[in-house]
Amino acid sequence: MSINKESDISANLQIGPTSLGMVRIYISGDGVDLPMDFEPEEAEEIAEELRAAAERARNAGGKAK
Hints:
Layout (H helix, E strand, L loop, with lengths): L10 E7 L5 E7 L2 E7 L1 H21 L5
Antiparallel strand pairs: 1-2, 2-3
C-alpha cells in the first residue's frame, strides 16, 4: 500500500508522554496494537514533518476540507 492509496482500514491514534520521558504514538485497530516511543527531539521532528505535509496537502487542493 502506498501513501497515496485510500484504504477502508480504520484505527485509533493516541499521542502523549510516557512516565519515562518519551513521547508515545499509539495506534490500535483491528488486530493491531502498535506503541511507538520517541525521544522528545524526535517527536518535534515528526511534528514538523506533519506540519509541512499538511501545508503541501493544503496547497495541492484535492478533496474539500
